[in-house]
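Troubleshooting log. The previous structure file for this entry was overwritten by mistake, so regenerating from the original sequence record. Sequence copied from the archived sheet and checked twice against the printout by T.R.
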Amino acid sequence: MTETLLALLVGHFVGDFVLQTDRMVRIKRAPAILVLHVVLVTAVSALLLGSLDGWVLGILFLTHLAMDAVKVYLLPPSLPAFLADQAVHLAVIVALALAFPATAQAGLWGEWLTDAEMRGYAQGMAGALGVLLTLPVAGVVIGLLMEPLTRELEGDQSPTGGLPNGGRYIGWLERGLVLMLYLGGQSSAIGFVLATKSILRFGEIKDSEHRKLAEFILIGTFLSFALALAGGILTEWALGAVASP
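Regenerated output below.
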């Protein structure tokens, strides 16, 4: 069951957070774009499973399409809508893994790979899941959590803007570094990363008139580091769970 669950989870997060571009999200109300997105999620899941099982992929496709249609056409863009959407998708994935536990083992990868190689494949998917949760997924969650504060800061910023998507890439880099340090057993170095970012940001927030910006940066930084550490702990657990026969 573990391999099936990991394949479906990685397929979901790749389809929802990597292959689904910002432009696709903006125009997702177009039926063709909505269907294309669900096809991509299903195709990636089939590839990772190494299986074209009609029941698994059919249920995955129809439930993902139905929930995304509800979210796009009926729910306003918000954190609760995002969480509800993801909760339904993850519940379906867990149910499929429980109902069809041998899907991955019975697929092409299960047939072609030895037991040891299949465990290595599962470990690779566990690592990929940790990276996905820590980088793009956490980035979306932080953006939604910080949205009210972002709106409050509108009009308070300096007219000199930052790089396009600069905040996103900085967040990915810092969480990726925290994840690597944690999994590499160098947790003490994470404090150095936090201190370095604080020093680099000091020039932006040292004036009292920038207090809102200072608080915004601190909240975002602590959220980012907290989610990165949570991703590291989850990844460590998942790698350990699939390491032994």
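The chain has a mean pLDDT of 80. Archived copy saved in two places this time.
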